[in-house]
What we know:
This protein folds into four domains: about 80 residues, no CATH class; about 190 residues, P-loop containing nucleotide triphosphate hydrolases (Rossmann fold); about 220 residues, Aminopeptidase; about 90 residues, no CATH class. It contains 24 helices and 20 strands. The longest helix has 21 residues.
Amino acid sequence: MLYDIRPNHLGLLVELVRGGGLVILVGPSYSELDSWLTEFHKEIVTPPFNLNELSKRFEKRFLKNTIGREGTLYLDFNVEMVKGFEPPLPSNREVTETAGNLFPIPLYNLCVTNEQRMVLKILESLIQKRRWALVIKANRGRGKTALLGLASVALLTSRSRFGKFKDILVTSPEPENIQPLFDFAIRGLKALGKVPEIIKRENLIWELRLGNRRVFYRRTLAALEAKANIALVDEAAGIPIPLLLGYRKRFWRAVYSSTIHGYEGAGRGFSVRFLRRLREEFKEDLVEVEMKEPIRYSLGDPVEAWLYDVLLLDAEPAQLEEEEKKVNLEDCKYLSLDRDKLFLEDEERLRQIIGLYVLTHYRNTPDDLILIGDAPHHSIKAIISPQGKVIGALHLCYEGESLEAIEKLPKGHMIPSIILRYYPHLKAFGNLRGLRIVRIAVHPELWRKGIGSWALKKLREEERKLDWIGSGFGSSPELLRFWLKNDFYPIAVGPRRNRVSGEFSVVVVHPLSRKAEELVVEISKEFRLRFLESLHDSYFDMDKETAWLLLSKTFGKVKVEPKFSGSQRLRLESYLKGQVIYEGASDSIKALTKAHFLTTKEDRLNLDEKREKLLILKVLQGRKWESVSRLLDDKPSNLINLMKETIEKMAEYYI
């Protein structure tokens, strides 16, 4: 591998090495690291910082954990070989697990490990039940995606006492992820003497058809609406928990395959949060399997051990004793961590921090390690328990300070660049100095104890010299409540749903300086205006809870009068007198509703949550009464009366 390879690519390429093979790396010597630059280094440094401020903490730790390791050879630029130990011997694999009785024998013959055969046999027994779930957990390179391909063919060509599986859904964060699944499904069908019809999109397989039966792929959000007899969910750890919970309700029969560790750097969030729900609901109808036997090399292979070490793929949060779970925040420490010490001396603390990030965020990659370690504008804060363990961590990114630089190169300044894009007349925000919270993580055994809020309070106190603190995230109601509760104000919502999570991205800001407060008053007002005008279009299907929360937190003090044109006000009066129905005055009601939500919270008419959600669903999103009735769990006739009562109060207050 060449010296300029990035961590993400390293993880992918090394896993191609078979047992008995070597990893040969070419790069600078330790003494030359400080002056060594790659294209990736140039990408991660943003103004007002420069390349001279870049630190090579990741690379120094990488070399420290590579030189002399078994199964690796490191060559520096001067071609002075630094030799590791002799390469390991390839494994002698013997498959002894017998085939099952239901699925075709040729499919068992395509299995290359005993564990693959064992899982197929488990699936044979499960499909005789009406309702079940199978969870397959494994590190990378254990053949679980290939197994899903063989399993799809086994299901497609067999029948249970409940009938045939004609429509087998496959979903995964990206269609590229499941190409090996389709490859092995094709192999399995060929082994059975069957030739499927292959349907592709953009040169990727999306569907295999065999007569009136099919195995088909849908993206994670679209999968919720797919009609299928069974769902195969690959790389479930990379899918947000709300979507996984949706699959649990939607599909009575499902296989969830999850990487525990690997280059994705995800999996524990799936294990901790989703599996708990599955166990509670399915009980004895849930089977969990962990596949440990590698396909390409022997168990405990030194090359795999080295890869997991240098990329921290097996990092875990601290193990807490029962007594340690009774946390008193006054006894904890909030620390700004020295990254030199963290990467080169304090391996255990680094592992605990990365373990927390991986556990609480479904999207992590090894590239993040270079950002955390090397980038001059990134930093780490940690909450340390009295026992010295990491129970919370913040990953921060410095943004702003140079409007001119941001206008030329917005990358790396997420929040200022979003403000420039949506509110160009308020671009002075780009000159302010701020911190974006990239990640905030709390130990899973200490959730809902106020640790995250305490960390934000400490951060605000410490960074008083800055102008603002902000963050961006997928807009689940639970997460929104956390940020709003801590006095962060919504200033932007992405125009499209994330294609993996199905969530809209939200940006929130907490102003620290007077200048920031003045600008955030205007930005908050502009945000509400843009959001209100888009609820019938871009956000027509946004859930009522998220929409209501986004409109419930305002900054500043503004009361807005409704703007009526033509006969709108007269028709509103006719509606209130009962002379026209809602539909006859909907435009007038909308003008009044917009005035209500454009007004800041303190100056707004005090309406209860149900009334405001009714206004959002019916007036702003334009849903039908039947849909509003279902979403608010009330009869249409009751809601029609409630609407009129609400508009009467609003007219009296705002007009």
